[in-house]
Amino acid sequence: ENTLVIFTSDNGGPIYEPGSANNYPLKGGKYSDWEGGIRTNAFISGGFIPAARRGATHSGVVSIADWYGIVAELAGVDQEDQAAAKANTWLAQQGLPLLKPVDSVPQWTHMMEGTNGRPDAFYISNKAVMKYPYSWWL
């Protein structure tokens, strides 16, 4: 009842040789801006999942970086990097660039409620502009 298994990936499969993945029905693959290159399957399982959400689908935006925030939230710990915050005090005094904060959105509640936890997600490259659920190709 306290078990949680997380399976995720970082990008779509490689469609070049020798990778030969198939991301159908999505277009593109690894290293491309098409959904086949950036959208992946992920699932969570285990007794920790509320019975009402077992077998449910979540269609919101979840970044691979968000898994850190999700696990930290479930473990009841602060996701802020205290060592980086301490280092930033010294870096600021030296006039040096600061370390960036952890870019992770705790999304457990959104996953359990079926809502999008990253409505601000916005992606721009030299080929595409994406804001869930829309994309515009240049």
TrEMBL record:
<dbReference type="InterPro" id="IPR047115">
    <property type="entry name" value="ARSB"/>
</dbReference>
<protein>
    <recommendedName>
        <fullName>Sulfatase N-terminal domain-containing protein</fullName>
    </recommendedName>
</protein>
<dbReference type="GO" id="GO:0008484">
    <property type="term" value="F:sulfuric ester hydrolase activity"/>
</dbReference>
<dbReference type="Pfam" id="PF00884">
    <property type="entry name" value="Sulfatase"/>
</dbReference>
<dbReference type="InterPro" id="IPR017850">
    <property type="entry name" value="Alkaline_phosphatase_core_sf"/>
</dbReference>
<keyword id="KW-0106">Calcium</keyword>
<keyword id="KW-0479">Metal-binding</keyword>
<dbReference type="InterPro" id="IPR000917">
    <property type="entry name" value="Sulfatase_N"/>
</dbReference>
<feature type="domain" description="Sulfatase N-terminal">
    <location>
        <begin position="1"/>
        <end position="77"/>
    </location>
</feature>
<dbReference type="GO" id="GO:0046872">
    <property type="term" value="F:metal ion binding"/>
</dbReference>
<keyword id="KW-0325">Glycoprotein</keyword>
